[in-house]
């Protein structure tokens, strides 16, 4: 089973379900990728800050799948912002991954206090032109951050990867993405810890649909048109996390899950944190 593709604003596409890899080590992540590819995943998400790009590259090679069949994302954190530092940053990532290009390159955090994300985005535009990044996007950007990019640069981000789950639904950011043709991608899609998955509502819906609470939550992301990157180190859970396309949620159930929202203050505030 492979996930459907979501169209990006540059004519490319991204698999709707990917494998998250934080905080797995190089040694842990490689066999997970082999398992994931065998289960149908074609989208792998990593970052410089995760410290596992070497293992991700090894897992891709060990999986035996052709490079062009995979969608690989990495992210450059704050140390690569400003003065074209992202050029060397991506080159180093590609060397660790053992790849000639990534399918998606993201600015990991805006770090607005440094006020370098606009100039960094202009460097990302150069990397897009070079072909070393097939698509470029951002992570943890708020509408105000995106407004500056749209006003001061030439390329609209293809993706904004943000913390998003039924406790932190980010309705304003999702609507902004829809309005501007930016795909929203959910990190921490199952919440932090097990609190979300212990919600009685999700247990009832899991019984209703014959799925696990985690699958119900991931299907909620799918119903909202989001790209989702769940992480697990357990082979059975890796397989469950992509087994989402033989059922749909009733609209009333989507709304009930959305009503678990605790507001943006329940999640990270990328105006004050980030690296």
Architecture overview:
The chain is an alpha/beta fold. Helix content is 39%, strand content 13%. The protein is built from ten helices and ten strands. Strands 3-4-5-6-7-8-9-10 form an eight-stranded parallel beta sheet. Helix 3 (85-97) packs across helix 4. The mean pLDDT is 97.
List keywords for this structure.
275 residues; alpha/beta; eight-stranded parallel sheet; two-stranded antiparallel sheet; 10 helices; 10 strands; globular
Can you summarize this structure?
By secondary structure, this protein is α/β, with parallel strands linked by helices.
Secondary structure layout plus pairing:
Blueprint: E1 5-7, E2 13-15, E3 19-20, H1 26-39, E4 43-45, H2 53-63, E5 71-76, H3 85-97, E6 104-107, H4 117-130, E7 136-139, H5 143-152, E8 159-163, H6 171-180, E9 183-187, H7 200-209, H8 213-223, E10 227-228, H9 235-240, H10 251-258
Count of DSSP helices? 10
**Shape category:** globular
Task: State which percent range the strand residues make up.
Answer: 5-15%
Q: By helix and strand content, what is the structural category?
A: alpha/beta
